[in-house]
Amino acid sequence: MRYTEAHKEETRKKVVKAAAAAVRAKGPDGVGVAEIMKEVGLTHGGFYAHFPSKEALVAAAIGEAFDQGRRRFGRITGDLKGLEAFAAFLESYVSMEHRAYPERGCPVATIVSDLPRQGAAVRTVFDAGVTGLISRIAAWLPGDDIQERQDLAGSLVVEMAGAVSLSRAVSDEAMAERFLAQSRRRIRARAGVSDDPERTA
């Protein structure tokens, strides 16, 4: 039976979405092609009709994970601008909810330690995702110096992702919550976000 291109594209999207969750939950090396194909109701043999290799699937999955994050945080920030948007983003990102659901969270906070072992195709997609995240945060920060905003945004991404990663590494939930609260407070101060919403510019 021959399928239309539209059907083939829809099937590919289902595979990529399933793989995006699996990559974040288990890491790129923990993703099993057979398991992913079974999850979306397909046979292992059908995989190569959509991807030339597992590496291509992982690269597409990481791209999808960043896209999902952008859409999710876009819904959270809504029509907010500047530091108000960043404050909303920060509260959602450095949170116990984000800690609890790595499979639908930001790949920077989930798979960063796996990337040195991945091939060029995967790392290129990850680099692009990180660059996009930094640029979105930089656009929210005040100041006329674009490079300074980019530098601060990069540092804030490192701190936010590190906080979430460490909170996941510890088993004590009270300790995890404390780490996240401390990080939110320090990040707000570094970015110039006031604890008083009325004073946030």
Structure description:
This protein is an all-alpha fold.
Keywords:
mainly alpha, 201 residues, 69% helix
Q: In terms of per-residue confidence, which ranges show pLDDT below 50 for 5 or more consecutive residues?
A: 197-201
Structural Rg: 19 Å
Number of helices: 9
Mean pLDDT, rounded to whole units?
91
Oligomer classification:
single chain
Number of strands: 0
Q: How much helix is in the residues?
A: 55-70%
- Topology as a string of helices (H) and strands (E): HHHHHHHHH
Using the alpha-carbon principal axes, give the shape: globular
Which strand-content bin applies to the residues?
A: under 5%
Task: Label the structural class.
Answer: mainly alpha
- Biggest sheet layout: none
Map the helices and strands.
Elements: H1 5-26, H2 33-39, H3 54-77, H4 82-93, H5 96-100, H6 108-111, H7 120-140, H8 146-169, H9 173-191
Helix pairs in contact: 1-3, 3-7, 4-9, 7-8, 8-9
Quick recap:
This protein has 201 residues and is mostly helical.
